[in-house]
Amino acid sequence: MREDRGAVDAPARYETKFDFIELAISRTDRAILISDAAGRPCYVNPAFVSLFGYDLPDFASEQPWSLLAGPLTDERLHARARQSTVAGRGFYDDLLLRTKCGDPVWVSAKIDPIFAADGSFSHLVAMLSDITSSKRLQVFQRDVLDALARDIPLPELMHFICLQVEALAPDTCCTVLRVDEDHRLRPLAAPSLPDHVSASVDGVEAGPRAGSCGTAVWRGEPVLVEDIATDPLWSDFKHLILPLGFTACWSHPMVLKDGRVVGTFAFYYTDGHGPSAWHQQLVDACLHLCTMAIERFEARAKIRRLAYYDALTGLPNRTLMRQRLEQTLRADPGQKRKIAFLCLDIDRFKDVNDAFGQPMGDLILEGVGQRLLEHASTADMVCRLNGDRFVIILDECDADRAAVAAQELVTRMQDPFELSGASIPLGASIGIALYPGDATNVDALFDHGEAALMDAKSSWRGGYHFFSPAINALNKDRLLLGAALREAIAAETLNLVFQPQIEWETGGLYGVEALARWSHPEYGPIAPDRFIPVAEQIGAIEALGAWALRTASAQLAQWRRDGHVIPAMSVNISAQHFRDAGFAQLVADVLAENALKPADLTIEITESLMLEETATVVGNIEALAEMGVTLSMDDFGTGYSSLSLIARLPVKELKVDRAFIDRLESDASAQAVATAVICIGQSLNMSVVAEGVETLGQRRFLEALGCHAQQGYFYSRPMAAADFEDWILNYSGGALRRRA
């Protein structure tokens, strides 16, 4: 072969096939080395000289491998190549060699043995392709994946990617931007740009004239601007970039599988030449890696949010709050800090869900969370435990500040929520535990805060209570009592007693009130004012009320069958029953089961229930009234009912609370209240029943006012059913007769 490596002067010089082969070998970009059987090079093409810097004379006294092998070259590959060629087989693999200047170079090597006509080995042809760039790209990708696997923070990873890319393409400046949920740009990495550039871009909304990156996000496709100074896309931002010497920008959007643009990857150039093929390879690799990283970041953020944040309100959940509180307490070994743990519960939230539906209830919970956040300082923490229960942790807060904060929260929660045209009033109760006074660990703070909350809710709703050891003992007692009460209701081991109501004009029986009693084999007799609040707290009050309603109705029906004249049976029903849309139907079913008329039943309700003008409560009240059931307002005068409310609701009876009757003979205020209640009832054509009458003086005072009926120990204590039958037979106060 001829040594001519010059340009083609005239096609006439290449007339034979070998001429054209020589032309191809001299023009290819693959390095070619041909050596004889002894391994001495006899030909190298221009591409070989260009790649390695060695020409034929350089191999006069050296074997090719001794010159081309570097300190990082794998000698095992050399041995395998030699074995393959000696055996008459070709060799193909990637080799790390070095140039004459000592620079490493990766090549894809194809080495084939050549045999003479007689079958003897005569030459070796090595064709070497420069794959250094692709190898460096592979190493880069491997390093990024390794960093990704180590879960380094996203900004740190993007910074690493930019630095590596700038090393692979020194003629570029690399940046990575993220796109937030509001379609605004958020810088992640720009190691070669001044900080003020990133700060100026932060928060810029993507749009049709938002530079290369913002426009690429808006279009969802790459944007190349070759002259930043004149391109209208850069009119609002060129003052940031031009002083730095950059004249062109090429930006690619990062697009997820669902089509969402989550970021951009961009190159800045100083000479305006734009991207090369090598740049395109880098961009393709980086887009894949960056998109993978952001997807992983979002997935992990979503997992973290699900694990540590409430999905509805976005507030920290119990797990995160516990972790942060534990960290705070560990950092205070001397217990010098003062922390208030406020446990807040929305009063009667279930009624809101029942009346307006869960979607409206969810909106209210979100609103409650927002109100709590507005009240909290940056050092405080608000979390949602579950349902309608929240916790507020106030840092550097003593008892006085905790009381002020609790009262402010209670007051704020009383402001109605305006949603979908409806004004929904609410309230909240709060229990407070203090660190380190009440507890020095997280579990105790939780327990004591919830104990104080239970005490607040049992005493009065819409207030706050501090924890005390007495509260803790009381709540333990409630827990034990609650478990026993559930068993008693299920086993129907409670019983009813009956107290007569006497009509003052005739002395005859006006009615009978059924009262629940409970005697436990271990705890003994348990008063109603003790176990009924427990039933409300543990959610057993509806089961207790349904049992009382069925048992009292069945007893009335039995007395009627036995010939006793019992005008009506009164049963106390919890407000919770009226919040159940099926309560009126339950009453109708019980009456039908016992062949009773609606007028045979009087249901006693509280003043506070009348203030709950929700659709479910009002619907039950109206349904019972239309049915013919008598509704009696119990303990009238102790609440906040207005005359207009009483006048428009279908209440037929008022009961004067025993608190006023007890002081009737000695307290002018009690006399005034009793007189007013009786007069109100008479003016509204309602019956009035005074309960707790124990003396002759009380009886005469009430009779003088024209009170319709009286009830109390003056006439009889509450009695078991059998004792009540005897009382009826022996009572001589009026025209009570046993039917024939």
UniProtKB/TrEMBL annotation:
Domain PAS: 17-63
GGDEF domain ranges (all copies): 337-469
Domain EAL: from-to ranges: 478-732
Pfam families: EAL (PF00563), GAF_2 (PF13185), GGDEF (PF00990), PAS_9 (PF13426)
Domain PAC: 91-143
InterPro entries per record: Biofilm_reg_signaling, Diguanyl_cyclase/Pdiesterase, EAL_dom, EAL_sf, GAF, GAF-like_dom_sf, GGDEF_dom, Nucleotide_cyclase
Top-level taxonomic group: Bacteria
PANTHER family: BIOFILM ARCHITECTURE MAINTENANCE PROTEIN MBAA, DIGUANYLATE CYCLASE DGCP
Record protein name field: Diguanylate cyclase/phosphodiesterase with PAS/PAC sensor(S)
Native source organism of the sequence: Pelagibacterium luteolum
